From TrEMBL:
Ranges for domain PRP1 splicing factor N-terminal: 12-134
Superkingdom as given in the UniProt entry: Eukaryota
Subunit structure: Associated with the spliceosome.
Family recorded in the similarity comment: Belongs to the crooked-neck family.
InterPro entries, per the entry: HAT (IPR003107), HAT_Syf1_CNRKL1_C (IPR055430), PRP1_N (IPR010491), Syf1-like (IPR045075), TPR-like_helical_dom_sf (IPR011990), TPR_rpt (IPR019734)
GO biological process terms on file: mRNA cis splicing, via spliceosome; spliceosomal tri-snRNP complex assembly
Ribosomal protein found in the keyword field: no
Name of the protein this chain belongs to: Pre-mRNA-splicing factor prp1
Keywords recorded for this protein, A-Z: mRNA processing, mRNA splicing, Nucleus, Repeat, Spliceosome
GO cellular component term of the entry, any: U4/U6 x U5 tri-snRNP complex
Main location (coarse class): nucleus
Annotated compartments: Nucleus
Pre-mRNA-splicing factor Syf1/CRNKL1-like C-terminal HAT-repeats domain boundaries: 422-553
Length: 718
C-alpha cells in the first residue's frame, strides 16, 4: 500500500483557503457572539481553483488540459475507472479504501439495474455490449482513450488471420485497392507469416506480385510455398528454372521443389540427372526413387530400385514397382513373396484392404501378373482360421467386380479356391464371373476344375440331361461316399429315381438325405411332394411337421404345409396353419401372397394386401401379388409399376420376369415385350419357385433364357 503524503506538517500552498473544497465559505452558529467572518468572494474562489489546477496540470473546468470539452455522457463519468478519473481530485492517490468504496457502490448500481429499472438508455446498452464483447487484457487495463470502437488491426495487429480476413472483406465489397492496402499493412505487421504474403501476391497483378514475392522471399527464404508461387509468376521456362534452382540453393531438402524442377525439364536426360541428385540429397523419398526408375532403362531401373529398397526398406511401393519391372522384363520371379517377408520383418506390412487396392491399381495400369502376385501373397494376411474367411474373400471379390476390376476378382477366387477346394459356392461364383465377364474357354476351364475338385454333382446333372441315368446313378453313389453331407447329391439321387418311376428308392433317398442334411429346405420339400403325389397326404403332412422342427421359421416350409391342406380340400386347416405361420414369420411376402390369392375371398384381397404392405418390408413376391391385383382390376398402369418395382428389388427372381411378361403379352406393346426379354436374357435369373421347376427339367436343360421365360409365363395361372 502506498504511504499517504504527510501534508499536515507542511506549509499551506499559496492562496490556500481552508474548506474551499467542500464549499465552506462562511457561516454562523448560536455560540457566535457576533457575525461570522466574511468568506471569499466568487471571483476569489475561481482564481484559487485556477491556480491550483495549473499546478496540477489540470484545466480550470476540472479536465486535463489536452482533453477536448465534451459535455455528453455526463452520467457515464460517474462510473469511470478511479485511476483515470478527471476533475478536481485527479491528482490524488487511489488506495484500497477507495477501491472498496467503489466496489460497494458498483454492487448497489448493479442491483438497481437488475431490479427491473426501465431507465438507463444508452448506458444499459453499452454495458450489455461490454459484457458480451470483452476487450483483451491489454486494452482493458490500458489508459483511457477517446470515444470510438477499437478495430481488429488495432486490437491484434500481429494476427495474420485478421489481416487476411480484412483484405478479403474489402475484396468482396469490390474495393480491390483497399484490400491491397490492408494486406500490405498486414505484411508489414506480420513479415514472417507466409499466408499473408501469399494473399498479397494473389490480390496484385503479375508485375506487382513479382515484386511482392521477392520481398516475401527475403523475409522467408525457407518457405517452399513462396518459392513455388514465385516460380509460377514467371512466364518463360528459363525464368521458372532459374527461380526453382535458386529455391533449391536455399532449401535443398525439399521434395516438392525437386519435383517441380523435374517437371520443368523437357529433356529426359536432364530430368534423370536432377532425380539422381535429388535421391542423393533426399534418400528417403519414395516418389523420387520411383520417378528415377521410370526414366531409366530396364537394366538401370533394376539397380535404382535395389538402391531404393536399401534406402527405404519399409516402402511397399518400391517392391510393387520392382515386381512390375520383372513382369515387364518377362521374368517369372515372384518379387511379392520376398516383399512380404521383408515388410513383415520391418513391421511395415500394410492391411489386406490396402493390398487389394494396390492390386486393382496394377490391373488398371495393365500389370495383370503383378496384380495376381499381390493377391496371392497378401489376401490371407491378418485372417485366422477362426475368421469367416470364405465369406470375407467372396465379399472382396464382389467388391472388385462392382468396381470393374475383374482380374483382381479372378485372382481372389483363385486364392480362395486353393483354401476351400470343395466349396461349391466359390466354384459357382468363379464360374459366374467367367460367364459374365470372361470367355467361353475360361468358363469351360473353371467348370472342368470344379468337376475335378467338387462333388461330381455337375457331372451327374450332365449325365442325367443326356439320358444316361445308369451312369448318373453310379456317379451320384460314388460322390455320396465322399460327400455324404451334400444336399444336392441326395436331391439328384431322388430325382433320378423319380424319373425312373422308382418311388420307393426315391423315398429312401430323400429320407436318408434329410437325416444326413436336416437343414436343407429344398430336400424336405422334395420329400413332402413325393408323398403327396403318391396320395399319402398324411405322410406328407408328417414330413413337413418334422421339417418345421428341423428348420424353424422357414416361410417355404410353412407355405408348403398350407398348400398341402388346401390341395387336400382342408381350407379351414389351411387357414389355421396360415395364422400360425404369420405369427412365426410375420414379414414373409411368400406367406402373405399365398393368403391373399388362395385363402381370401375376392372382396377381401385388396384390404389384405394393404395390411401386408404395412407389415412387410420391401418384398418382391408381395409386390408381384399386388401387381396381379391391379391387373385383375384393369388398373394396368399401376400393375406395370408394381411389376417393375418387384424387378428392381430382385432381378434374379425368374417368377417376377414371367409374371411381368405374361402381363405384357396381354396388355403390352411389341417394343416393351422385346425390352423385357432382352433384360431378362441379360440378367439370366436363377431363382423363383416356378422358374426353377421348369428350368431344371432335363428336357429344358439346353434351352436358353428366352425359351424358359416363355415356358414359365405360359405355365402361370391367374
Amino acid at each position: 500500500m502506498a504511504s499517504r503524503r504527510d501534508f499536515l506538517s507542511q506549509p499551506a500552498p499559496e492562496n490556500y483557503i481552508a474548506g474551499i473544497g467542500r464549499g465552506a465559505t462562511g457561516f454562523t452558529t448560536r455560540s457566535d457572539l457576533g457575525p461570522a467572518r466574511e468568506g471569499p468572494s466568487e471571483d476569489q474562489i475561481k482564481e484559487a481553483v485556477a491556480k491550483r489546477a495549473a499546478q496540477l496540470g489540470i484545466g480550470g473546468d476540472g479536465k486535463k488540459g489536452d482533453d477536448k470539452d465534451d459535455d455528453k455522457g455526463g452520467d457515464d463519468d460517474r462510473f469511470k475507472d478511479p485511476d483515470n478519473e478527471v476533475g478536481l481530485f485527479a491528482g490524488g492517490l487511489y488506495d484500497k479504501d477507495d477501491e472498496e468504496a467503489d466496489r460497494i457502490w458498483q454492487e448497489v448500481d448493479d442491483r438497481w439495474a437488475g431490479g427491473g429499472r426501465s431507465s438507463g438508455g444508452a448506458r444499459a446498452v453499452q454495458e450489455e455490449y461490454e459484457r458480451n464483447n470483452p476487450k483483451s487484457p491489454a486494452v482493458a487495463t490500458g489508459p483511457r482513450r477517446g470515444p470510438g470502437p477499437i478495430t481488429d488491426d488495432e486490437d491484434e495487429p500481429n494476427s495474420p488471420g485478421g489481416w487476411i480476413a480484412g483484405a478479403r472483406l474489402e475484396e468482396l465489397a469490390g474495393k480491390t485497392v483497399a484490400a491491397r492496402n490492408v494486406i500490405a499493412r498486414g505484411c508489414e505487421k506480420c513479415p514472417k507469416n507466409v499466408d499473408v504474403w501469399l494473399e498479397n501476391i494473389r490480390l496484385n497483378d503479375v508485375r506487382n506480385a513479382k515484386i511482392i514475392a521477392a520481398e516475401a522471399i527475403k523475409k522467408n527464404d525457407k518457405s517452399v510455398l513462396l518459392w513455388v508461387e514465385a516460380m509460377r509468376l514467371e512466364n518463360e521456362p528459363r525464368a521458372k528454372k532459374r527461380v526453382i534452382r535458386l529455391a533449391l540453393d536455399h532449401i535443398p531438402d525439399s521434395e516438392a521443389l525437386w519435383k517441380e524442377a523435374v517437371n520443368l525439364e523437357e529433356d529426359q536426360t536432364d530430368a534423370r540427372l536432377l532425380l539422381a541428385k535429388a535421391t542423393e540429397i533426399i534418400p528417403l523419398s519414395v516418389d523420387l526413387w520411383l520417378a528415377l526408375a521410370r526414366l531409366e532403362t530396364p537394366e538401370n531401373a533394376q539397380k535404382v530400385l535395389n538402391k531404393a529398397r536399401r534406402a527405404v526398406p519399409t516402402s511397399f511401393e518400391i517392391w510393387i514397382a520392382a515386381a512390375r519391372l520383372q513382369e515387364q522384363l518377362g521374368a517369372s520371379v515372384n518379387v511379392m513373396k520376398r516383399a512380404v517377408n521383408v515388410l513383415v520383418k520391418e513391421s511395415a506390412m500394410p492391411k489386406r484392404e490396402e493390398w487389394i487396392a494396390e492390386a486393382e491399381k496394377c490391373e488398371e495400369e495393365g500389370a495383370v501378373a503383378t496384380c495376381g502376385d499381390i493377391i496371392k501373397e497378401t489376401l490371407g494376411w491378418g485372417l485366422d482360421e477362426d475368421d469367416d474367411r470364405k465369406d470375407t474373400w467372396m465379399d472382396d471379390a464382389r467388391g472388385s467386380i462392382n468396381r470393374g476390376m475383374y482380374e483382381t476378382a479372378r485372382a481372389i477366387y483363385s486364392y480362395a479356391l486353393r483354401v476351400f477346394v470343395n466349396s461349391r459356392t466359390l466354384w459357382m461364383a468363379a464360374a459366374d464371373l467367367e460367364r459374365n465377364h470372361g470367355t467361353r474357354a475360361s468358363l469351360c476351364q473353371v467348370l472342368d476344375k470344379a468337376v475335378d475338385a467338387c462333388p461330381k454333382s455337375e457331372s451327374v446333372v450332365f449325365e442325367r440331361v443326356l439320358g444316361h441315368t445308369d451312369a448318373a446313378l453310379d456317379l451320384v453313389q460314388q460322390a455320396l461316399q465322399y460327400f455324404p453331407a451334400a444336399a444336392k447329391l441326395w436331391m439328384l439321387k431322388g430325382q433320378i429315381y423319380e424319373d425312373l418311376d422308382k418311388l420307393g428308392q426315391a423315398r429312401e433317398a430323400y429320407s436318408t438325405g434329410v437325416k444326413a442334411v436336416p437343414a436343407s429346405v429344398p430336400l424336405w420339400l422334395l420329400y413332402a411332394r413325393l408323398e403327396e403325389r403318391a396320395g399319402l397326404v398324411v405322410k406328407a403332412r408328417s414330413v413337413l411337421d418334422r421339417a418345421r422342427l428341423a428348420v424353424p421359421r422357414s416361410p417355404a416350409l410353412w407355405c408348403e404345409s398350407v398348400r398341402v391342406e388346401r390341395r387336400a380340400g382342408n381350407v379351414n386347416q389351411a387357414k389355421s396353419l396360415m395364422a400360425k405361420a404369420l405369427q412365426e414369420v410375420p414379414k414373409s411376402g411368400l406367406l402373405w401372397s399365398e393368403q391373399i390369392w388362395h385363402l381370401e375371398p375376392r372382396t377381401q384381397r385388396k384390404p389384405r394386401s394393404l395390411e401386408a404392405i404395412k407389415k412387410v418390408d420391401n418384398d418382391p413376391i408381395l409386390f408381384v401379388a399386388v401387381a396381379r391385383l391391379f391387373w385383375g382390376e384393369r388398373k394396368l398402369e399401376k400393375a406395370q409399376n408394381w411389376f417393375e418395382k418387384a424387378l428392381v428389388l430382385d432381378s434374379n427372381n425368374g417368377d417376377t420376369w414371367a409374371w411381368y411378361y405374361k402381363f405384357l403379352l396381354q396388355h403390352g406393346t411389341d417394343e416393351k415385350r422385346g425390352e423385357v426379354i432382352t433384360k431378362c436374357v441379360l440378367v439370366e435369373p436363377r431363382h423363383g419357385e416356378y422358374w426353377q421347376a421348369i428350368a431344371k427339367r432335363p428336357a429344358n436343360a439346353r434351352k436358353g433364357t428366352e425359351e424358359i421365360l416363355n415356358l414359365v409365363a405360359n405355365s402361370l395361372e391367374r
